Structures are given as structure tokens and as C-alpha cells.
Amino acid sequence: MFQFFKRVKTVVGSELNAMLDKAEDPVKMLDQFMREMQEDIRDAEASVAKLIANEKMLEKKVKDAENMASKREDQAIKALESGNEDLARRALEDKKTHANTAASLRESYELAKEDASILRTKLDEMKNEYNEMKLKKDTLKARAESAKTRTKMNRSMSGFGGNEARGGFDRMEEKVLQYEAEAETSEDMRSSNRSLDDELDALDNNGVEDELAALKKKLGK
């Protein structure tokens, strides 16, 4: 019953590396170990409780037998005082029976008391060891979670700004440059077309002036 923690020590120690090698989740496994240890402690508590109950029962039987032996002795004295020797003799015989019973029960009681004391001590050791293992489990869980987080972050950072991402930025930069070049070209074309329109307008204006001068000449003005 009390060998379980030895097995748990082995698992948490040497077998923990094996679990990690097999890609088992150490956090889940540690939680499972703690649940098994709690169950073992509950079983041990139930066994100790039964032993303590048996100890108390034997203690009561010892006291009852001793009290009866003492009572029979008092009754034997009263019987003698009243002149009833036969009754006194029978009282003393019954006293002897109860005294022998008390002695036998006391031996069993002392053994049960010793066993209960030993098992209570072992149970306390189990609980102390459980608390130590729980603290170790919490530390291991924190380390495992930290390692997982670091691994996840490292994997994310390994792909951050990679060739694919850089290539995408380069392509977008080329697109922007192309848009800017097209905008400048359209602006130049617009400016060029506007200059041509101005020159054509100027030509048209010159024709009007010539025509106006011809009319004035015709009218003698």
C-alpha cells in the first residue's frame, strides 16, 4: 500500500525523459501522477482509519474486562462479609476469567496501537511527500509551459520576414513605382496636349484678326 510513492518517484525521475522522447504531454502526465497519488493517500487514510477504529474497540474491551474483574472482586468481598463463601468463590472464579480476557485483549490492543501509530507516521510521510511532489509538479509544469511558449515564438520568428515575405514587399514596391511612373507619364501627356491646344487657339485667333483687317480695308476704314 505504501510502495506507490516509490513508483511515482521513478516515473517522475528517470521515466520523465522517456515520456518526453515519446512526445507525451508532460503536463498531462504529471497531473495524472498527482491524481494517482491522491487516490493512494485516500486508500491509506481509509486503512489507517479502520486500524484506529479496531484499536479503540480493543481498548474499550480491555477496559470493560478489567472493570468487570474489579467488580467481581468487590462482589467476592461482600459475599464473604455476608458469610456466603460459595458465592465469593464463584465471584473470584469469574474475576479470574475477566482478568485473563483483559490480559489477552490488552496484548492485541497494544499491537494494534503500535501498528496504527506506525501507519499514521507513514501516512504523514506520504502526505508530506505528496506536497513536495506537488510543488515539483507545479515547477515542472511552469517550465514545460515556458518551453512550449519559447518554441512557438521561435517558430513564428523563424518565418517572420522570410524570403517569401520580403519577395512580396519587393513586388508591391515595384507596383507602387509603376503606378507612380504611370501617373507622371499621364501628367506629362496632359501638359503636352494642353500646350498644343493653346497653340491651335492662337492660330485661330490670328485668322480672325486677319479677317477683321480685311473687312476694315474693304469698308475703307
Automatic annotation (TrEMBL):
Bias type Basic and acidic residues, positions: 167-177, 187-197
Domain of life: Bacteria
Coiled-coil parts of chain: 34-75
Composition bias type Acidic residues, residue spans: 198-208
Disordered, as annotated region: 141-208
Pfam families per the UniProt record, alphabetical: PspA_IM30
Keywords: Coiled coil
Family as reported in the entry's similarity comment: Belongs to the PspA/Vipp/IM30 family.
UniProt name for this protein: Phage-shock protein
Source organism of the structure: Jeotgalibacillus soli
